[in-house]
Design brief:
The complex is a heterodimer of chains A (126) and B (708). Chain A is an alpha/beta fold and 126 residues long. Chain A has helices at residues 11-19, 21-26, 37-44, 66-76, 91-99, 112-125; strands spanning 2-6, 30-34, 52-58, 81-86, 105-107. In chain A, strands 2-1-3-4-5 form a five-stranded parallel sheet, sandwiched between helices. Chain B is built from 15 helices and 18 strands. Chain B starts with a helix and ends with a strand. Classes of the chains: A alpha/beta (126), B alpha+beta (708). The A-B interface holds A 9, 11, 14-15, 18-19, 21, 60, 62-63, 65, 87-88, 90, 92-93, 108-110, 112 and B 471, 474-475, 477-479, 481-483, 485-486, 489-490, 493, 512, 515-516, 519, 523, 562-563, 566-567, 570, 573, 575-576.
Chain lengths: 126, 708
């Protein structure tokens, strides 16, 4: 399963690679990274239909925000599963994300346990 | 009827006879009174109009002669040409007393007269020739009396042939000017010698009066020349001149060199007397009231016109009298009205007028009573001009005194002012000291308030940042936590790998661990630096300058600002870009101050773009803030560019003023930009503003690169 992580903090890449070390090693999970909304869209459009099946995006990003990215993805690729994460776990952001079709809404710091659970659920479904 | 006529005739005849039989006995007593006997008014004269060759003879028919005195002659006797011609006869006998004393004939009136004694022509006064050209009035009044060759105690017949004509000169005036004694009189030796003396004295006195008046006039005019603004002097000078001209004309008229000149000078004399009497009230008014009313000026013109009228038509004493009465009435009115307020020099004029009046009355009385005034009466002309001289001199003295008093006053006032000024100076100094104390106190208060304000501005901007800071700290802390957690997991894995003996795998994990620890360290430092920056921001500026990396400051504060605003307002939407010159040198600056400036400017930029995002109808508007750093020859520049609505021209000049804000009340202190401006100025840099309502605003900070 190919998963796209979108965050403007570049260290997220190292962190995710280490956190999902075993899953990657076993070939169950493939991680790709984008550091802005636009980059994410570019990456998704490289193949049609996209190889990515799961997008995990931060909301607070300069330029295109995660919520905009969510709208864009849901418009172009309605089948994709998207989860959002934000430093601010406020109701407003949460509702907006869920309304726009996000599967889950996470609050920073990332709870990797629940993320892993979700990913394993997704893996089982495929 | 015939009888009654006869009676009338006989009576008339008897009268005539009586008259002719009536001989005038001249006694020394009759002459002694004035040493002069006016013959015109004595009884015994008989008269016949016309002329006859033998009318001087003793034995002629006197039936056509009437009893008539020369003093009874008047204009009525003149024919249609104004001419009167006739003969007077008088029988006269001198008292024996005259054997020892000589007696003289004397005449001072205008008629041409031929004097016959006992039928013999004794003297011709003027020319009695019947034809117009031959006639000449008698004018030589200064001629001395001529001896009367009369035998005492013997009866003599005096016959006078006289002609008076008005064709050259009004008879009316002549007759009126002639007193009874002027026709013909008999005078004694005393009178003769007195006349001789009188003539000399008169000449001397006339000369004195004229020269004095002339000199005075000249003097007054010189005064006028030097004091052209003094109207009093001008009026006095004019009066004095009129008066002097009148005197000169009168004197010349008395010299009667020829008839025409005499007439001319006489008219001149009359005119200037009128003029002088006309101007006198003006002089008095000016001296008493310092003013000449319009009425008085009209009266003056009236007097002058009246004088001209008199000379050209009336020829009488009455106009002169009326003019004199008018003149002295007005003068008297002024003296009466201002009597109580009169002072000093004005009394001189009063004195002059009163004296003049007394002398005038004396003259009038002498005319009425037929008294010949002594030569000294010529001095009657002096009191008025002299009183004016006295007035002028006293007035000048008064003026000098006034000037002296005024000068003293000025000195006194100046002295008072000086004392007052000194007192005021002391008061002022005290006041200045008090005010200075108060001012320095309030200055201290102000400084304290200012410090408080600056502090609250800092706190306010810090407050705005709290959420951003929290986010900015949370991010690295998350990484610290995440990396430490994952490292722990990695270590567990590594132990497993080591126990299974896969050394390569363990080494790879160890490499990851090293990297993770680096990340933990990096993000820990990142959080620490943000906390440090926040503390610095709230701390008061130390003014200490150090080598500062503008790029990292710009980066840090751009993020802080962005996340702060983002955290505060969920609807906030903006993009930011950084274009930082990697070769930017460090500059010597107070980093917290510069950071504060950057934060302020970036906050403003975000505020501008998010405001536009909310209000704009422009579709596809992308709010964006771009921070650029660049190096110039001796400075570094930081530009903060936004694509907001720009700054309206009308407030462009105000944005750096303290307390100026466009934000709603309570949202901004209005101190941000003014403090930024102060800080940049203190660093020797400058803030450039480039704003456009369509393109947005670019604020550029320029900071000098100083030698360390």
């Amino acid at each position: 399963m190919k998963m796209l992580v979108v965050d403007d903090e570049k260290d997220v890449e190292i962190l995710f690679l280490q956190k999902f070390r075993k899953e990657i090693k076993s070939g169950l999970l493939e991680l790709v990274f984008a550091f802005s909304g636009q980059e994410a869209l570019d990456l998704l459009s490289r193949s049609n239909p996209p190889e990515v099946v799961y997008v995990f995006s931060d909301i607070n990003m300069p330029g295109m925000t995660g919520l905009e990215l969510l709208d864009n993805i849901k418009m172009k690729y309605p089948m994709l599963t998207v989860s959002m994460i934000s430093a601010y776990g406020d109701k407003e952001n949460y509702e907006k994300a869920i309304d726009s079709g996000a599967k889950e809404f996470y609050t920073k710091p990332i709870d990797f346990t629940s993320l892993k659970t979700e990913i394993s659920t997704l893996l089982q479904n495929t | 009827m015939r009888q009654s006529l006869l009676i009338v005739f006989s009576l008339l005849y008897a009268g005539v006879l009586h008259a002719q039989e009536n001989t005038l006995i001249v006694t020394p007593e009759m002459i002694n009174a004035r040493d002069e006997l006016a013959l015109a008014d004595v009884d015994g004269w008989i008269f016949r109009e016309g002329n006859g060759a033998d009318w001087a003879d003793a034995d002629i028919d006197l039936s056509n002669w009437n009893e008539f005195k020369p003093s009874e002659l008047s204009v009525k006797n003149a024919d249609e040409n104004g001419k009167i011609e006739g003969w007077f006869r008088l029988k006269i006998r001198l008292d024996e007393a005259f054997a020892a004393r000589p007696i003289f004939w004397y005449k001072t009136s205008f008629e041409a007269v031929d004097l016959y004694v006992d039928g013999e022509l004794v003297h011709m006064y003027g020319k009695t020739k019947a034809d117009v050209n031959g006639y000449k009035p008698y004018l030589n009044f200064k001629a001395l009396p001529i001896p009367a060759d009369l035998e005492p105690a013997k009866e003599h017949l005096i016959a006078i042939h006289f002609v008076e004509s008005t064709y050259l000169f009004p008879a009316r005036l002549k007759s009126e000017l002639s007193g009874p004694w002027t026709f013909l009189s008999m005078t004694g030796q005393d009178h003769y010698s007195r006349l001789q003396v009188n003539e000399r004295e008169t000449l001397i006195f006339k000369a004195i009066v004229f020269s004095l008046c002339f000199v005075l006039s000249l003097f007054f005019w010189i005064l006028v020349w030097h004091n052209p603004k003094e109207r009093t002097l001008l009026l006095i000078a004019v009066f004095s001149s009129f008066f002097t001209i009148a005197i000169l004309a009168g004197n010349l008229a008395g010299e009667q060199a020829s008839f025409y000149n005499w007439w001319f000078y006489f008219a001149f004399f009359i005119f200037f007397i009128f003029a002088a009497m006309g101007i006198l009230p003006l002089v008095i008014s000016q001296i008493f009231t310092r003013n000449v009313s319009k009425k008085l000026k009209w009266i003056f013109f009236g007097q002058v016109m009246f004088g001209i009228l008199n000379i050209s038509i009336i020829w009488g004493k009455e106009p002169l009298l009326i003019s004199a009465i008018v003149c002295f009435s007005i003068c008297s009115y002024f003296i009466y009205a201002y009597w109580k307020s009169l002072r000093g020099a004005q009394w001189a004029i009063v004195g002059g007028i009163v004296l003049m009046l007394i002398l005038l009355i004396l003259t009038l009385l002498s005319l009425i009573f037929g008294i010949r005034l002594p030569a000294v009466s010529q001095l009657f002309g002096l009191p008025l001009p002299l009183s004016m001289l006295i007035y002028v001199s006293i007035r000048f003295k008064e003026m000098l005194t006034e000037v002296q008093i005024n000068a003293d006053k000025v000195i006194m006032i100046a002295e008072e002012k000086r004392v007052l000024l000194e007192a005021q100076k002391d008061t002022l100094e005290d006041q200045v000291k008090t005010r200075t104390r108060e001012l320095s106190l309030s200055l201290e208060n102000l400084k304290a308030t200012q410090a408080q304000l600056i502090q609250s501005e800092k706190m306010a901007s810090l407050g705005e940042l709290t959420a951003g800071i929290a986010h900015e700290i949370q991010n690295p802390l998350n990484f610290v936590n995440n990396f430490s957690e994952v490292s722990k997991e990695l270590l567990v894995e590594m132990k497993e790998e080591l126990s299974t003996g896969s050394k390569e795998e363990a080494e790879a994990i160890a490499d990851d661990l090293i990297q993770n620890l680096d990340k933990i360290n990096h993000h820990g430092k990142r959080a620490a630096s943000i906390v440090k920056g926040m503390l610095q921001h709230s701390r008061s500026s130390s003014g200490h300058k150090e080598l500062t990396d503008i790029n990292s400051l710009a980066d840090e504060y751009l993020r802080l600002s962005y996340h702060g605003l983002r955290a505060k307002d969920k609807s906030f939407q903006a993009d930011f870009k950084m274009d930082l010159d990697p070769h930017l040198p460090g500059i010597n600056a107070n980093s917290q101050d510069i950071g504060r400036v950057l934060l302020n400017l970036i906050n403003n930029a975000f505020y501008a773009v998010s405001s536009k995002a909310l209000s704009t109808k422009e579709s596809g508007y992308k709010p964006e803030v771009i921070v650029t750093t660049s190096k110039h020859s001796n400075s570094v520049a930081v530009s903060i560019k936004d694509n907001g609505d720009g700054i309206p021209a009308e407030i462009k000049d105000k944005i750096f003023q303290p307390f100026f804000t466009t934000k709603p009340p309570g949202e901004g202190t209005g101190l941000g930009l003014s403090l930024s401006f102060e800080i940049i100025k203190a660093h020797g840099g400058e803030i450039l503003l480039d704003t456009n309502e369509a393109l947005g605003t670019t604020i550029t900070l320029s900071l000098p690169i100083n030698e360390m």
